[in-house]
Write a structure and sequence with these properties.
Thiol Ester Dehydrase, Chain A, two-stranded antiparallel sheet, alpha+beta, 139 residues
Chain lengths: 139, 139, 139, 139
């Protein structure tokens, strides 16, 4: 399983830039290490839900995408992986601040991946904790 | 707990129209019954992720919003409720089709709400199943 | 997928009686319908955790077993199915009372099953809600 | 929140010994550090489910109890805490081997606790991953 090309931060950011459905969010990759990817969600008033809180949709989307890129970092862009299950615990609200999301792969199988993601603010306070499963699609 | 005004479909659609963070999705409320709300996600190529599948973010967001509106339907707009926990099982991909999301409240407490949401296509095939917890914010 | 023998309540209770790891719990099958199984957890002081509450372990175990039997009811005893994922929301404590657990299959695939389970007391009050995934083991 | 007495491994094992509902499992505490507790599930044929696998019930129970003790280690025995939500991903089967369960508190609030637990075998292979929420009961 070491044959897949490891991807650079620039390459992963190119994937993001080419994903039209993510355009409203402005996500960018800060770093990518072994089985791990760190995504930044820059604060934008357009992502706030009523109450002045970054929307749960944005937080969940960031975690889902961070894991997608962590898998891509291990396995390259040729394989197609899709989310099969995801759970989010919202622990603290994000208010007018960037969100930093770190996805970590705990189990990297040939057909399934399982891992966690943590969304924090720039001060390191935990905002949300996620567990995520992906499956590879064989066409 | 029967004092809160029950809201009409038109009123809930007005809430959606005033929520800027939901603008990219085009959600609309189809119906609202006791402890239940049905939301429509109209197909849009801008919501597809690579592989021609409606993005998980869109599906999760629809379920989260449908539950938010189901609570609003019971409790009105004065109280502030936020998602505390949400789990999604992705069972089948949505491809170039509308998504119909039905949220149902199973437990309606003073401080917490728990319920399920089901996303299906217009043929009634189950696409995703969600369990969602909300908590009331007391300021 | 209609070739598997549908099993009777008596046959499912025989499976329970032969499962030594379940002996401490006294589970019994009340009914088994299409894609659905109802399990009874008779009250026993030995299942209480401190505080006089039926233990979470007992509640989770009942749901897991009810789904296992619901699958067996559809697919027979020759196939081996194991739990891959399970989430429980504890909504109300059970106190010195029987627990009735109903498992329902929402998606019955060749390799995976997804469904819900609800644990209630005999008055029909919802105690816990579960979502459960099983996978078939191919040896 | 530093006023609660920190409990010793011996004291936590005494709590286990006095919990009749856990008698079938033989759990013991190996260590207890800040916001963390490690529990051992000794292998016993009586905990196997059909197929020669340690039952999911045992694995889930171990994680639930390990978190309960981790909270007790921080907060003492006077407060009553109950599980409100728990999700388990079963990643690998345990076969005729001890299970080591490490629970870690990620958020320690006055009313709620959130954390993870990992069940591994003695070789360090991850068997199951859990996320767990507890709430304090105020009587």
């Amino acid at each position: 399983m070491n044959e897949a090309p490891r991807m650079s931060v620039d390459q992963l950011n190119t994937v993001l830039a080419q994903s039209a459905f993510l355009a409203p969010y402005g996500f960018s990759v800060r770093s990518c290490e072994e089985k791990q990817c760190t995504l930044i969600v820059p604060f934008s008033a357009s992502l706030e839900r009523p109450g002045g809180i970054v929307s749960g949709m944005t937080i969940m989307g960031a975690a889902d995408v961070a894991m997608w890129l962590a898998i891509m970092g291990e396995r390259g862009t040729q394989e197609q992986w899709v989310t099969t299950d995801m759970k989010t615990a919202f622990l603290r609200s994000a208010r007018q601040e960037n969100v930093v999301c770190v996805a970590r792969i705990l189990k990297l199988g040939k057909r399934t991946v399982y891992g966690t993601a943590e969304c924090s603010n720039e001060q390191g306070q935990l905002l949300a904790h996620h567990v995520i499963s992906y499956a590879r699609i064989f066409e």
